[in-house]
Amino acid sequence: MPADFSGKWILENSDNFEEYLKVLNIDFATRKIAISLSQTKVVAQDGDKFDFKTLSTFRNYELAFTVGVEFDEYTKGLDNRNIKCLVAWDGDKLVCTQRGEKANRGWKHWIEGDKLYLELRCEDVVCVQVFKRKE
Fold it and tell me: Residue 2: helix, strand or coil by DSSP?
């Protein structure tokens, strides 16, 4: 049985986030705002169907997908690119491969105890964010 990601998660730690934003060509001012924000993730899961909402005082982002079904994503408000995405289970980890202008792009989500981990990667940069379960 795959992990249950449902709930509200508050960002505790973000390692290498600014470098990740740089490789996505995010401008200086937006990077400085983004790294200073507190983020909340709200996840709704129904089996292999997910709705991830990333909320902050600056910008919100929503991503809905079904594991195993390729989808088009427009990263509006992030780096504003059109990418093809495919999310798969790797044990209890959600692993997303993203194809587009940037090489080696994607993310992984997994849970350890009351923590939700997000590994973001693009080209040779890896960022790890840690969220603590709020509810």
Answer: coil
pLDDT digits 0-9 by tens, 108-131: 999 999 999 999 999 999 999 999
Distance CA(25)–CA(10), nearest Å, equals 26
Nearest Cα to Cα of residue 65 among 35, 89, 90: 89
Q: Is the pLDDT of residue 1 over 80?
A: no
- Ranges of beta strands (E only) in 1-135 are 7-15, 40-46, 49-55, 61-66, 71-74, 82-90, 93-99, 105-112, 115-122, 125-133
Query: How big is the chain, counted in residues?
Result: 135
The sheet carrying 71-74 orders its strands as 61-66, 49-55, 40-46, 7-15, 125-133, 115-122, 105-112, 93-99, 82-90, 71-74
Predicted TM-score (pTM) of this structure: 0.93
